[in-house]
Design brief:
single chain, 176 residues, 3-stranded mixed β-sheet, 3 strands, 11% strand, SpoIIIAH, SpoIIIAH_sf
Length: 176
């Protein structure tokens, strides 16, 4: 293999990794991100339209704020946890045993975050507007934006969560 072929293969692999990272970020936030530019444009209108839809917007924003707030809080906690684990791993004064434990905990946290994202996407694909999933220990907590959930809805969401996470203790809540 020549240097030119190696360079082409390496470049293509780097592009694949970049596209994968971008796709993961897009799938993580979904299409319901309130900071999405298309939603900002669609919410702009004349003053008359805004006055007419004021009450309706308050209800919608209330639920969006709820999910946005929960998601922000969860992401901040996850980021702080990973940052602390990275600092512990990178500290020269930390013993090798503590570094190994921190590395394993970081790996578990990363895998948990991946499973949460996959559960959220799978449940959204069932037709729900917004979903938030968190895995804490041996519990999976799923909050779904819906008026109410039927027994079949709950069963299908629980099946998705069990298949992806491998945890059978699933708490499902609906939020209007």
């Amino acid at each position: 293999m020549t240097k030119k072929q190696f360079g082409i293969i390496f470049t293509l692999m780097a592009l694949i990794v970049c596209v994968g990272v971008i796709a993961a970020r897009i799938n993580k936030t979904g299409l319901n991100d309130p900071t999405d530019f298309s939603q900002v444009i669609s919410q702009q209108g004349t003053e008359e339209e805004k006055d007419k839809d004021k009450d309706k917007d308050k209800e919608t924003l209330g639920s969006q704020d709820y999910f946005f707030g929960l998601r922000s809080e969860k992401d901040q906690k996850d980021a702080i946890t990973i940052q602390n684990l990275d600092a512990l791993i990178g500290d020269e004064k930390t013993s090798q045993e503590a570094k190994d434990l921190a590395t394993n905990e970081r790996l578990e946290k990363t895998m948990s975050m991946d499973k949460e994202g996959r559960i959220e996407v799978s449940v959204k694909n069932k037709g729900y507007e917004d979903v938030l999933c968190s895995i804490e220990g041996n519990n999976v907590r799923i909050v779904v934006k819906a008026e109410e959930l039927t027994d079949s809805d709950t069963a299908s969401i629980q099946e998705i969560a069990e298949n992806i996470s491998g945890i059978s203790d699933v708490i499902i809540e609906s939020k209007k």
